[in-house]
Amino acid sequence: MEATRKLAILLLAVGLGFGIGACERKGPAERAGEKVDKAVERAGDKVEQAGEKVGGAAERAAEKVEEKTDRK
Fold it and tell me: What is the per-residue pLDDT for 19?
């Protein structure tokens, strides 16, 4: 019984070691997924920047309209 338990623990440890080692290598699908993630993040940043520019332009336009209507 003692030998069986030790053998089971050894096999479990070896299996976990191989499992962890295999997880470290990135396959082509994982690398492609990371590239897609980065591209989506960059696109989101660009959309956010464009939104800020549009928001700033809208604020300036509103200020000009307010200036024109307040002078009368």
Answer: 64
Residue count of the chain, please give it: 72
What phi, psi does 18 have (nearest 5°)?
A: -65, -40
Domain borders along the chain are 2-70
For residue 45, give both structure tokens.
């940043």
As a whole number of angstroms, the longest Cα–Cα distance in the chain is: 99
| Identity of the amino acid at 9 | I
The model's pTM: 0.49
**pLDDT at residue 35, as a whole number:** 93
Separation CA 29–CA 32 (nearest Å)? 5
Chain mean pLDDT for the chain: 83
- Euclidean distance between CA atoms 71 and 66, whole angstroms: 9
